[in-house]
Amino acid sequence: MAEDFEAYRGSVTSTGNDEEPTRQPADVPHEADDRGAGEDHRSLVEDERLTRLLGGERPSEEAARRLADATALVGDEPAARPRRRRAWRRSRRAQQARLDAAERDARALVERILSPFDGARRVAVASTKGGVGKTTVTVLLGHTLASLRDDRVVALDANPDAGTLAHRIERESSANAVDLLDLVGSVRDYYDLRHFTSQAASRLEVIAAPEDPRDTRGITRSDMHELLDRLSLDYTLLLADCGTGVTTAATRAIVEAVDQLVIVTAPRVDSVHSVTYMLRWLEGAGFGDLVADAVVVVNGLREDTGVDVEALMGHFAPIVRTVVAVPWDCDLARGGTTDLGYLRASTRHAIAQLAAAVADGFAAPQRQGPGS
């Protein structure tokens, strides 16, 4: 009933009608978007998505010319030589070819990220140690999928130890996962669920973890299955930001119920050993299918650490489906709210590669967990 959710209404905008929150543009069901109404419209949508992925305006012809001139000026050839018309044309053609190749690569990434699927998909993001960037990877993956795809995307903070996922976006709701669990039987539809979520500009929605240390209620295995099943009725993509390890009841329930695993590790020997142990443990516990289809994220790579990236990625390559390297980014190191637009282009590109790798897994049939 609507009165059950009154305490969590918070800053969810109301129309004056207490039955539903206002349908902001991001809240309107996508069936009403009239997507696919013509090739021109589809092209505009794809161009908008590509611009988001590239992180800005596509270079104009004049910008490309200036960039080509600047490249020639600081390149191996003497600065005077590119002034010759023929050399300038060659430089411009080469620069345009690089721009065209970058755009083709970006479009290919977008096409992979937009891979279709039936039903709903659940993805667990896990790690064996704290401080490796698991929550950061969760929110960046969620931002990318939500901003490019037409699906409703929700990220659930399933960390039992004061998870911080909700602090990575602007908070709209004071509710948390336990509050939702208490009232899950009264939830009728998506608009009831919106009282328990906070939504970022990317359209990603987040459900917070409990933060009151006096609240000693834990989420059991059956509780977690109930939450995941209810959320999957109204969200086609669900990301679960797990606690460290896989032995707690809640995390074990998530592993049982998800379609894919994303495992985050730091580029350190101890972290790599711990993740290898986790993967072997999962194989021995009957989750070999998840391990074989998993994506390992090597997060926070820095050029000055002397880490052999190829060897590190090669270590995991025979065990999992894909390994993605994400560079260190000062805007992520500080924590707090996260926005793709403030990241370095190389970081955005790496997260897009991660989103594409996850979307590649959508081709597999939906995995049948205990609650299915």
Report a brief summary of the structure.
This protein has 372 residues and is α/β, with parallel strands linked by helices. Helices cover 41% and strands 12% of the residues.
Give the tags.
41% helix; 372 residues; ParA/MinD_ATPase; 2 domains; ATP hydrolysis activity; globular; 12% strand; single chain
Would you write up a description of this structure?
The protein is an alpha/beta fold and 372 residues long. It has 2 domains: 39-112, no CATH class; 119-363, Rossmann fold (3-Layer(aba) Sandwich). Helix content is 41%, strand content 12%. The chain contains 13 helices and 8 strands. It has helices spanning 39-54, 61-74, 85-113, 134-148, 177-183, 190-193, 221-231, 249-257, 269-284, 288-292, 309-316, 330-333, 345-360, and strands at residues 121-127, 153-158, 198-199, 205-207, 237-244, 260-265, 295-301, 322-327. An 8-stranded mixed sheet has the order 3-4-2-5-1-6-7-8, with helices on both faces. A hairpin with a 5-residue loop joins strand 3 and strand 4 (205-207). The radius of gyration is 23 Å and the shape is globular. The two termini are 26 Å apart. The relative contact order is 0.14.
- Give the N-to-C terminal Cα separation: 26 Å
- Tell me the series of helices and strands, N- to C-terminal: HHHEHEHHEEHEHEHHEHEHH
Q: CATH architecture of the largest domain, please?
A: 3-Layer(aba) Sandwich
Biggest sheet character: 8 strands, mixed
Could you report the average pLDDT, rounded to the nearest whole number?
Answer: 80
Number of distinct helices: 13
Q: Using the CA coordinates, give the radius of gyration.
A: 23 Å
